[in-house]
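User: My collaborator sent over this chain with a note saying "see what the structure looks like." That's all I know about it. Can you take a look?
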Amino acid sequence: MSIFGRSTFSSAGYAAFRPSYPPVLFNRVLAFHNANRGTAPSSPSGSLLDLGCGHGLVARALAPAFTSVVALDPSANMVEQAKKLTTDPKIEVRQGKAEDLSFLPDNSVDLVVAGQAAHWFDFSKAWPELARIVKQGGTFAFWGYKDHVLLGHPETTPIYNKFVYGEADPVPGMESLARFWELPGRDILRESYRVVTPPEADWSNVKRIAWDPDRTRGDIDDAPEEALWQRKTLKLGELEGYLRTFSAFHGWQSAHPNLKSRAAGGEGDIVDLMFDETVDVVPEWKAAGERWRDIEVEAVWGTVLLMAKRR
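Assistant: Without extra context I'll predict from the sequence alone. Here is the result:
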């Protein structure tokens, strides 16, 4: 089971610190969907299935365009969180997996979406299910984001890489997050879903939009506008909270229960030490002392959006 599905995983923390998605992304997905259907309805139309719905963000954002919505997640914690945050009666939140959609009739879904989730699917089972339930002319849209950079601060990127992916201990006696990433899921996401190949017999009009920032420069000069949808101005303290939603961090935490964060009364966990180094390399952040968490930065993530039409 994925770490996100464990009872110890904080779904509330995930909802609080994970970045949301901008309207431009949802508009792009709906534009692709409507173009392939040959119509752009002026009122809610059709059915939506949100796979790996998490706390229900995507289902709630897209619900106004559809008459019915099913939001599905394998994690009981995430389903509970989604139900707490979702009040729209047209949205049904339920527990389940992309590999088993037997509760849905054949040819019953117009659009299937998966935000930050498709890299966990077993597509040997998911593709047949999707082909069965999606109507002819219907569409799917899978998207994800990975590995942020802080604009204007490329000096922070090597520190992130060392603590998150480094093979050597980033500090003596404390291992990095590297061995705790759930594979192959993380690699599939970091490689922009290139191995996620819709079967040609079932899908056409395949469109893949992917981009990774230049992590040595810390800028977005080469970013195509259609790929530059995951960016956010946030405080360093919020970025710290976001890193603690990583599945790898929760795996690391379970393996090192004695290494507690300073907020929990310990001497510091791996995120504390990562931010010690991060703050130290930017003079104005270091000068802020204990107020560094209130400093605002702009984070930009690499992105991928994969869409296709049902034949």
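A starting point for your reply to your collaborator: The longest strand covers residues 134-150.
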